[in-house]
Amino acid sequence: MTDAGMMDCKKALEATNGDFEAAVDFLRKQGLKMAAKRADREATEGVVMAKIHSDRSYGIIVKVSCETDFVAKNENFIAFAGSIADAALQNHPADLNALLEIKLDGISIAERVAEQVGKIGEKIEVAQYETISGAQVAAYIHAGYRAAVLVSINQESTEANEAAKDVAMQVAAMKPIALDKGDVDAAVIAREMEIVKEQTRLEGKPEDMVEKIAAGRLNKFYKESTLLNQEFVKDSSKTVAQFLESVSKGLTVNSFRYVSLG
Hints:
The protein is an alpha+beta fold. The chain has a domain at 6-133: Tetrahydropterin Synthase, Chain A (2-Layer Sandwich). It has ten helices and ten strands. The strands form four sheets. Strands 1-2-5 form a three-stranded antiparallel β-sheet. A three-stranded antiparallel β-sheet has the order 6-7-10, with helices on one face. A hairpin with a 5-residue loop joins β1 (45-52) and β2 (58-66). α7 packs antiparallel against α10 (240-247). The protein starts with 5 loop residues before the first helix and ends with a strand.
């Protein structure tokens, strides 16, 4: 019933003088104790789930982490992560803390996670929770649940939905850091500009040309790192923005979310 090991169940029954319900509580408490002990361990493996609502108006990503690949590939662990993702999709909590408070079969997700720690013996945590909404949302889960993507677009149609799925796969493959040039953090731009200037100087270029050459190289950075300006992986003759426009006039991406293990 609890999925705990036989010896753990025996100890729990002995500790509670054979009281079945008390033994279940005992095991749950032991799970909480183990979770506290393992809090400082690294949990870099796990499962990343993306799900979208039936009307495609919003979607969620949940990352449930563990310590080993062996656990991450276990069917029960994957099902557990899926149940958390389903709860997130159905309840649409505002943030990760709110998600952890949602009840699964009468017990909060936070407590369910502690139970899993007790059963499995590894650090397990709901490490990340992301949401997105829009006229239409598409999702993509990379093989083995190692990464997931949500893409929100500004139009509703079958063609637009298929295009959004292609863009979601683009995000997983090319890992853009921002949607467009104007969305890149100013600190990132400043750091990148400083790097390309120094590279230009080391190449022996005259100082009066450094700024111009650096600006050109910064444009290359934008093309490689911002989604709408990237070459579309299925047709390198077009950027992602041009691909979307070719599918439907005015079609574009409003936002995206990318979550991966590690």
